[in-house]
Design goal:
The protein is an alpha/beta fold. Helices cover about 40% and strands about 20% of the residues. The protein has two domains: about 150 residues, ATPase, nucleotide binding domain (Nucleotidyltransferase, domain 5, 2-Layer Sandwich), CATH 3.30.420.40; about 170 residues, ATPase, nucleotide binding domain (Nucleotidyltransferase, domain 5, 2-Layer Sandwich), CATH 3.30.420.40. It has a five-stranded mixed beta sheet, sandwiched between helices. Helix 2 packs parallel to helix 3 and helix 5 crosses helix 6. It is globular and about 65 Å long. It starts with a strand and ends in a 32-residue tail after the last helix.
């Protein structure tokens, strides 16, 4: 089966084609950073309108580069949630309409399932089962992945996700949008030990996260500090160290509890170099290995949606003729391929 996939859950417009035998044939991603930078964050209406303008030309360009026609496509996958509802509706409407026009099945894909499966796009994909640390802009969770559609959430953020905390802290430090990656770069020049912030929820059992207090601690330290040339870098270093220590400690706790030998790290924050180094070292001490998607597949992309959709389409799963989009869609509602009963919402 050859699957065309579209992803429009937030501010990336993405298209990909995945083939059962050849794997990922090609993909394109357009990021709306310049559009939203002036506002300091994603404006949902602007994101939706930009998806409307770009999605069909990108589909046409992707098929053209691969020398494919609609007759070469056997199914369509589209991100149905969670995400910004207006943005989701663009991709869902286009994806479902193309499938109907081409006479092929369509399947609604859960955005987080795409992230959890993204490392399986690599040459040496991790085998099931594995433990996954999903750290993106909107979600932070530890998931025991037993197979496609078999996900047990061990813990998740009770407030800000890791990516949100990075971006909001970057804004406190006066860094331009999007600030998460810029904060990580600034932290590299910060001095260790100048600021030590709390490691949230490490003093209690379980696998849940909470990062709003960490952001507040940085704000209080910034207000109390004497301005200096090194202040922003030192604060960034202290924040990043606290964030990484927390994510590593919780992941270690989960590896020991589950006995898994593979830790998959996915989502935009998973590209953070300090986090990757620490997780790899920690896993090795437990006799486990780490697996990451390539950097371009850490952030939102259609390649992971194509793979997740392919797994469901080959099991004869498909959505009805309606357009499905859900701003909120609990991962716990997913079932193995072929067992989903998708309702229009």
């Amino acid at each position: 089966m050859r699957v065309l996939a579209v992803e429009t859950s937030c501010d990336e417009t993405a298209v990909a084609v995945y083939d059962s035998h050849a794997g990922l044939l090609g993909h394109q991603v357009y990021t709306q950073t310049d559009l939203h930078e002036v506002w300091g964050g994603v404006v949902p209406e602007l994101a939706s309108r930009d998806h409307v303008q770009r999605l069909l030309p990108m589909i046409k360009a992707t098929l053209g580069e691969l020398a494919l026609t609609p007759k070469d496509i056997h199914g369509v996958a589209y991100t149905a949630g969670p995400g910004l509802i207006g943005a989701l509706l663009v991709g869902a409407t286009v994806g479902r309409s193309l499938a109907y026009a081409w006479g092929v099945p369509a399947v609604a894909v859960h955005h987080l399932e795409g992230h959890l499966l993204a490392p399986r796009l690599e040459a040496n994909p991790p085998a099931f089962p594995y433990l996954a640390l999903l750290v993106s802009g909107g979600h932070t969770m530890l998931v025991d992945v037993q197979g496609v559609g078999c996900y047990q959430i061990l813990g998740e953020s009770l407030d800000d996700a890791a990516g949100e905390a990075f971006d909001k802290t970057a804004k406190l430090l006066g860094l331009p949008y999007p600030g998460g990656a810029k904060l990580a770069l600034l932290a590299e020049s910060g001095r260790p030990g100048v600021f030590r912030f709390p490691r949230p929820m490490l003093d209690r059992p379980g696998f849940d996260f909470s990062f709003s207090g960490l952001k507040t601690a940085v704000w209080l330290a910034l207000k109390a500090a004497t301005p200096s040339a090194d202040l922003a870098a030192d604060l960034a270093r202290g924040f990043e160290e606290a964030m990484v220590d927390t994510l590593v400690a919780k992941s270690e706790r989960a590896l020991k509890a589950t006995g898994r030998s593979t830790l998959v790290v996915a989502g935009g924050v998973g590209a953070n170099r300090r986090l990757r180094n620490r997780l790899t070292t920690m896993a090795a001490t437990l006799g486990a290995v780490t697996a990451y998607p390539r950097t371009e597949f850490c952030t939102d992309n259609a390649a992971m949606i194509a793979l997740a959709g392919h797994e469901r389409l080959v099991a004869k799963e498909q959505t009805s003729l309606g357009v499905m989009a859900r701003a909120r869609w609990p991962l716990s509602e997913l079932r193995p391929p072929g067992q989903m009963s998708v309702q229009i919402a």
